[in-house]
Specification:
Layout (H helix, E strand, L loop, with lengths): L1 H22 L5 H13 L3 H11 L9 H27 L2 H9 L4 H16 L1 H14 L11 H12 L2 H32 L5 H6 L1
């Protein structure tokens, strides 16, 4: 589970950086960011893990299973988080940013105090879906010798030949992990919407 936590945190950070590069169309880097997103989103996590775990040692770079799993999750999740952040950034009207500059804020302060909080609120439902998606993707970690839930379930099936029970336990385990996360995100979203914060229709009129 700690790999999923670090992977998701890394995905948020990478996604924010990539979304800023694309949103503000930073020369050269914007094209690199676009290529990264297309590569990441159009290749399975399993293939990415194989490249990190089996491919890199061929050029002298040997990484542990945990590092490979974390990097793979960050690489995959960063692209999804980047698109979520970008949708939030594009929901913020240019007028708000111009007002921030007019009252004496620096561009960095405008981004940090005006743009980023609202963009995050707008993108919250997408963040929730991405977090759940990434946690479910950890089911392929057994491919690089990590004992994830799927690995344990296959072991139980091999030991006791109780396939139905093992799979049912697997479903319950994922529900126990994912349902609270979904409920927490839904609660936060309702609170923000009730406060009128992060509503795209409101932001576009300001």
């Amino acid at each position: 589970m700690h790999i999923a936590v670090w992977g998701i945190l890394g995905s948020f950070l990478l996604g924010l950086i990539v979304s800023i590069i694309r949103h503000y169309r930073i020369l050269v880097l914007a094209q690199v960011a676009t290529a990264y997103i297309e590569l990441s989103r159009n290749t399975p996590l399993l293939i990415q893990l194989f490249f990190l775990y089996f491919g890199l040692p061929r050029i002298g770079i040997v990484l542990s299973s945990e590092v490979c799993a974390t990097l793979g999750l960050v690489f995959l999740g960063g692209s999804y988080m980047a698109e979520s952040f970008r949708s939030g950034l594009e929901a913020i009207s240019q007028t708000q940013q111009e007002i921030g500059l007019a009252i004496g804020l620096t561009p960095l302060q405008v981004f940090y105090y005006v743009v980023l909080p609202q963009a995050t609120a707008v993108a919250l439902p997408s963040f929730s879906a991405n977090v759940i998606f990434l946690i479910k993707e950890t089911s392929v970690f057994s491919a690089v010798a990590l004992a994830d839930l799927m690995y344990v379930a296959k072991d139980l099936i091999g030991l006791y030949y109780e396939t139905d029970i093992a799979l049912a336990m697997l479903v319950v385990a994922y529900l126990i992990m994912l349902l609270p996360i979904s409920l927490v995100f839904s609660w936060i979203e309702r609170r923000l919407r009730h406060a009128g914060f992060g509503n795209p229709s409101t932001l576009s009129r300001k």
